Amino acid sequence: MPIEPRMYVLVRKDLAETYRLVQGSHAVVAYSIKGDLEAYKAWNNGTIVFLGVRGMQAFTLWALKLQAKGKSFAVWNEPDMGNQPTALACIDTGEIFKDLRTV
Question: What is the pLDDT of residues 47-75, one digit of tens each?
Answer without folding.
Answer: 999 999 999 999 999 999 999 999 999 99
